[in-house]
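note to self: dont lose this again. the chain is below, predicted strucutre after it. 126 aa total, dont forget to put it in the shared folder this time
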Amino acid sequence: MITSTTMNNLPPKDPDSSKTQLILHLIPIVGFFPSLWTLYQRQGSREQLAVSRLSITLSFLWMLGYLLLTTGAAADFLTLRLLILNSFLTSGYFLVSVWLIFRVIQGKSSRLPGFSNLAERVLDQK
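---
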């Protein structure tokens, strides 16, 4: 049984560790795995779960686009244009992830219009 004196002895939650976890989830490609684990365990704050859903959605959309554009380029049909478009897609994914990391560091919202809503509809299991 936890008494009130035991509760007072617990250390307060560190907001910097929460920011660090959010940043870890937003790292391009690598952040997919801790995000997936957070959603699988269904543990974490609302913000961590929202960032995890967004990270997985961005990673999945990037991977899908990357594979489709690479497959199209391998078919010798507009090869150079598809590879250039592929590089723009990859650069955009990395830039959006870095931008979201900076927003988390500044303490601002990490929501993306459209993508956050899509992530909540697809990955939110109530």
